[in-house]
Amino acid sequence: MAWLGPLLGALPALISGGIEAFRVKRAELTPIAAPTHKQTELEDDAELTRREQRAKAPTNPN
Amino acid sequence: MRRSLLAIATLIVVLTSGCASPLTTAIRVSNELGAVASTSGADINATAARAEHACLWRADGTEVQTSLAEQKSCVASVRATYAAPLKAYDDFDVAWVALSAAVHAAEAAEVLGRTPDLTKLEALITAVTAAYDAAAHAAVEVSK
């Protein structure tokens, strides 16, 4: 039982060393995709405005 | 002796695998929910864009022949249909960005030897999870 004293004394170091040894490297954050619907709305609004202005424009008599 | 070593090994395994830190949990939740929401959010964005595009353009790339009023009405209808899921995914993105900022802040705190703000992390994990559930629900509703 003489070995028990030193073993208990070394237990904290063993545990923390064990934790470090077994610890899996923490993952990193993976970026997510940005939404695109605002860009779609801007483009379609611009197209509708273009068509509206074209419809309002005076027709060329020639 | 062998029994003691076995007990110590068991203790080490339990300590390392059973006690994931809130920061590790936050990163795992961010990545798992982020990956799924990113894909389904992109799908909803693309589906809404295709539906809106079809109000203005034919498949061959020429303009639709409906009146301007009908085109505007069609666009408004598509936007109304997809408004809820698109907003839900936007809200998820906002919550996700807030969580990722908190993760980076916690990582920086660890590097500096300070204690990370785990309460904030846990609150943001809850917010991201709720936003994810809301987005998934809205996506299901619009697909009915």
Structural account:
The complex is a heterodimer of chains A (about 60) and B (about 140). Chain A contains 2 helices and no strands. Chain A has helices at about 5-20, 35-55. Helices cover about 85% and strands about 0% of the residues of chain B. Chain B has 4 helices and no strands. In chain B, about 30% of the residues are buried. Classes of the chains: A mainly alpha (about 60), B mainly alpha (about 140). The interface between A and B is large, with 30 and 46 residues.
Key traits:
heterodimer; A: 62 residues; mainly alpha; 2 helices; 63% helix; B: 144 residues; 4 helices; 0% strand
**DSSP helical segment count of chain A:** 2
What percentage of residues of chain A falls in helices of 4 or more residues? 55-70%
Give the oligomer, counting copies of the same chain as homo and different chains as hetero: heterodimer
H-E order of chain B: HHHH
The main pleated sheet of chain B reads as: none
Largest sheet of chain A: none
How large is the radius of gyration of chain A?
35 Å
